[in-house]
């Protein structure tokens, strides 16, 4: 016959929340009817919570110089008030369910090259997480929910944890892997509620409102914000919300060329005859000029090859003395594309080519198509019409900070200009392991807030 726990052991187990629901119910009943047990519990609970609240202060006191001991006697009224507060605390715990919000509902099991800002939850690996917000600026982080669901955040991203079966994507991208015990796990977006029916899926919110849901395995139920079912997506299916296009008559005021104090001159694609666009193999959505994002992608996977994208840029350099240029750099502003997932693409290498055939500088921003894009063929770039000027890398989960590309070859290319218009092709050389790999994107001159591609020369 097992020995019954002592009152002290029960109190310690209650304070540490180690009791089963049945044990806790029995303990509640005993406290209500046993004044001595209640008094003992109140005293120890009060001491326990006081020590927790004063942990930081106590730590400082332990390392500080000893201070004179002053003995004070509390007035009877103060003792009475403290006792009343303690009894109120205990009664509130007995009469109402224990606070579930304080209990962890997830664990941050992995953080790869992460930088956080604006989170109200712990961000160290293996941290236990309750209800609250995580804001990831750089890197990739994986959360394991108590329900068994695993959610991977791809920077920049922000999510709010609601409970073990529910989170809200506020911005950026996440992928969710949901085992059978967690079926019904839900991810909210500003427009939809995605309810798992046994699957692995991804959802992303683009910087200009263009969002995507894609099901890698299983099935997802797509509901509106009121919980009404809109449709069901099965393996290999997805849906997009908005393409983020900007009407030509809404194009922001064109930025001008500026001369900086340190001798650099900045020339955005919005200056003079400058232009920017991207082309997509197959031209599924027609010409892409006038959109706020310049999208770029490369894949050697056959089913993904139709999503190949290249970026085309032209800068009006007619107002500078090109022959005197000693240094040059191209500055690009990364943006979330709302298409694809970073976890499916490794650190990516990009290459910048200069278009050497100046007869191709007259490409039309609003009419550029894949099969008629300057210096390009379906397989690559035309020999003798473009040359590589520079390369750069973008790590997985990179923040939305400007990318600066520079080389002596870029400066030489500007010096060789004869018609006052320098044109470039930007390609991604790194492929992907899954057709739903990330589509990288940079701000165009139509982006409402981010800086457009800018050529800086000195």
Structure notes:
With 458 residues, this protein is an alpha+beta fold. It folds into three domains: 7-95, no CATH class; 106-241, Jelly Rolls (Sandwich); 248-457. Helix content is 17%, strand content 34%. The chain is built from six helices and 22 strands. The strands form four sheets. Strands 1, 2, 3, 4, 5, 6, 7, 8, 9 and 10 form a ten-stranded mixed sheet that branches. It has a five-stranded antiparallel sheet with strand order 11-12-22-16-19, covered by helices on one side. Helix 1 (7-15) runs parallel beside helix 3 (35-53) and helix 2 (21-33) crosses helix 3. Residues 56-62, 92-101 and 243-252 have low confidence and may be disordered.
Q: Any idea what the shape is?
A: elongated
Total domains: 3
Strand percentage:
25-35%
Major beta-sheet overview: 10 strands, mixed
The number of strands is 22
Count of separate DSSP helical elements: 6
Poorly predicted tracts of residues: 56-62, 92-101, 243-252
Notable traits:
Jelly Rolls, ten-stranded mixed β-sheet, 17% helix, single chain, 458 residues, 34% strand
Quickly describe the structure.
The chain is an alpha+beta fold and 458 residues long.
Topology:
Blueprint lengths: L6 H9 L5 H13 L1 H19 L1 H9 L12 H20 L10 E11 L11 E2 L2 E14 L4 E14 L2 E12 L8 E3 L4 E13 L5 E13 L5 E6 L3 E4 L16 E2 L5 E4 L6 E6 L12 E4 L12 E8 L11 E5 L15 E8 L30 E9 L8 E4 L1 H8 L5 E8 L11 E4 L10 E4 L1
Parallel strand pairs: 5-6
Antiparallel strand pairs: 1-2, 1-3, 3-4, 4-5, 5-7, 6-7, 7-8, 8-9, 8-10, 11-12, 12-22, 13-15, 14-21, 15-20, 16-19, 16-22, 17-18, 17-20
